[in-house]
Amino acid sequence: MNVIRMARKSKLKAGLAGLVAGLIAAIALLTILLPIIMQYQQHVVESYQLEEYATALQNQRKIEEKGLTSCYDPSSGTISVNNTLGVSVVVVLVYASDGVNEEVKYFQPGTLVIEPGVNKISISDLGITLEASRIRTLKLVTSRGIIIQPPYCSEVVVVIKGLSLNMVLGVEQAPGGISVKSGSELFVHGLINKTDSNTLVFINGTLVPTPESTGSGNMPLAFRADLTVSDPNIGLTIERYDVGDYVLMVVNTSSYDYYQSDSGCYNVHCYNFEISGKFTLLEFAYSYVSKYDDSSDDPLRYVLVNNGYDYAIVGVEFNDEEAGKWGLYNGTIYVSSAETNINEVDVVIRFFVDEENKVINATLYANGSIVNNTAVFYRIGDKPSTQIAVLVPVEDLFNIGPEDSFWVKAVVSDCSSGTCLVDESEWISFTYKPFKLFVDRVYEKYFGE
Amino acid sequence: MINCKSISPVLSAIILAATMIALGIVILMWISGYSTMVIKQSQIDLLRSEQAAKENLVIVHATYNNSEGKVLMYLLNMGYSEVLLGPIRIIGLQSANYIIFTPEGIWFNNYSAKAVVNSTETTLTALTMSIGEVSEYLENLEIRNPSAITDKIKVYALEPCNEINGFYKVEIPAELSLNTAYRVEVWTVVNIYGKAYLCKLYTTQLTT
User: Fold this and answer.
1) Which of A108, A352, A422, B74 could form an S-S bond across to B60 if both were Cys, CB 3.0 to 4.6 Å?
2) Are β-strands B181-192 and B83-91 bridged in parallel, bridged antiparallel, or unpaired?
3) Same domain, yes or no, for B87 and B132?
4) Domain ends where: A148, A182, A199?
């Protein structure tokens, strides 16, 4: 009995000793591990604080950017800045250029202040000696690092080179965006993408007219912006009826319609985007489709080419405005990286259009093989002339990049009168300038990466 | 006969604890080594983020002087501390006058920087720094083999504008095509443990 009791006691002691040993080991390990955990936790906390600080700074800059609107009157050499922030803004640097000469003036913080309300600043008071009427670029840098670039007071829509955009309206042209009043309208139809976040809506894509003929004079409408603005210097009314324009917009709105509407689009889904009433147009860029005139009478009127996001649009417009005449067209569009014999062209589009029965068909071939799911856009109706265009992924099909040129040629035949009339365009050179970089940059500005 | 006193429970506990601690220390040292590496990277990342969040460099304007064959950029340091101006490149224009070249074909334009105070220009002296070993911070430039970069990186210290009471002017010798848009990339650099790490990318567009 004693031996058994002793054995039990001994086991109890060993168990207790093991427990104590385990505890000592656990404490020792925790002592070593704790600093590592604490250091890691400190990193997480500091990273979070840094992110908060950077976001706060960014927000302050955005508020300042939106709260200052400005324009420059070259006839009087006066910059008008409307400060709606309610607090003074300090300007530290002014840059001016007439395209050849430039001047940069630094101001010690506090010496040049933009008070709340409308401020009129003469460029001569800033020490700028360039001739006021010749100044093309003017920039003011605030103490938060915001650059104010006043557009000319008489024009806010500018044509810029390098991007093939006919109109660009960004924060540099209309700081804070264009706030439009009730009664304004915006309509977009085509192969467009939409992204939204709260009240911010981002739209971009290639436009196609709707056959519903909702435009002025019952024209088939692809785009309409009819904006009523209180500032008499800013206003925008555009109606477009062509296949192949490109648009980018960032709109701040509380209400809009966006729905699928495939009219005018084949092999691809198109959409309508509509707003009526008050909204703010923050960014706007528009590229008109280029129309290359065919000098002969029949049946080809224009060759259509435009840039897209990372593709090109090529197409044709027929000469078919003769009353009561329905065309029956066959044709081929050749797209090549060089001006060459049409038999040697790798990318070819063959199309067929029956205006009377409103039937269209188009097939894209690359090296003799059909490229499936080719997006086709068209406009068929009594007026205006019929157009057909095709989305060509030029970067994939013949290895061209931004700023490279490609060539387009169209051959069209009209067989509606029994005999076929054939019309052939010249080779047209077109510089490919996709909007991808530009669109992505605007997108990131409002929605992040 | 059972010999109950052959091993003392206290002794066995000490041996057990020692074994557990030894084993734990070995595992912890391995974890610690790995953690040290992660923490070092994390520290670099943190310092870099801190600098990137704090610094406020403004590219006021970039222009091309056709007659002199150079790009001019006007910069302002609107932050509260010094900014190290690092490599600059004009995208789409591989200049023969590069300062770093790697087997991956990465290059930067050569340039000089001047401080402009009261319309007086003073050429800045470039500082040379070794490039940090942590390759992750060069990945966004597609430099996957930093050891192939033999040159040290050249940087210019830009003081806050209210300290120098002026701005900075950068001159990049370059022959550009006319009526063309170019994108200019400007990197700032952060000095961590005596090594240079790319910190923040600023970009601007230039139309000739």
Assistant:
1) B74
2) antiparallel
3) yes
4) A148
pLDDT, average across residues A142-147: 84
The string of DSSP codes covering A162-223 is TTTEEEEE-TTTSTT-EEE-TT-EEEEEEEEEEEEETTEEEEEEEE---TT--SGGGPPPSE
Q: Are residues B93 and B121 in the same domain?
A: yes
Look at residue A268 and tell me if it is in a domain.
Answer: yes
From A291's Cα to the closest Cα of chain B, the distance in A is 22
Helix (H) or strand (E) holding A9: helix A2-67
Place of tokens 């009664």: A183
Return the SS3 of A126. Answer: coil
Sign of CA dihedral A331, A337, A341, A345: negative
Q: Which residue of A lies nearest to B34 if distances are taken between CA atoms?
A: A36
Same domain for B96 and B13? no
Per-residue pLDDT of A349-379, as tens digits, reads: 999 999 888 899 999 999 889 998 899 999 9
- Sheet strands (E) in A18-136: 68-73, 78-83, 89-97, 102-106, 113-114, 117-122
Instruction: State how far the alpha carbon of A265 is from the alpha carbons of A272, A361, A376, B100, in Å.
Output: 12, 11, 6, 50
**Chain B environment of A108 (Cβ under 8 Å):** 162, 165
Measure the CA–CA gap between A401 and A403, rounded to whole angstroms.
6
DSSP B33: H
pLDDT tens per residue across span A12-50: 776 777 777 778 777 877 776 777 777 777 777 777 777
Best interface-test mutation with B: which of A5, A38, A95, A106 has the largest number of B CBs within 10 A? A106
With 0.90 as the threshold, say if the pTM is over it.
no
Please check whether residue B162 touches A, CB under 8 A.
yes
Contacts of B161 in chain A (CB under 8 A): 92-93, 106
pLDDT along chain B (208 residues), means of 10: 59 78 79 70 77 85 86 89 86 61 64 89 84 55 55 82 89 79 83 79 78
What is the domain extent for residue A201?
158-289+435-447
Whether residues A266 and A371 fall in one domain: no
In CATH, what number is assigned to the domain containing residue A92?
2.60.40
Domain that holds residue B176: 57-207
Q: Are the beta carbons of A163 and A119 closer than 8 angstroms?
A: no
Q: Please tell me which of the candidates A33, A43, A109 has its beta carbon nearest to residue B28.
A: A33
Q: Do residues A406 and A301 lie in contact, with contact meaning Cβ atoms separated by under 8 Å?
A: no
Q: How far is CA A268 from CA A314, B17, B41, in A?
A: 16, 72, 47
B177 touches chain A (CB under 8 A): no
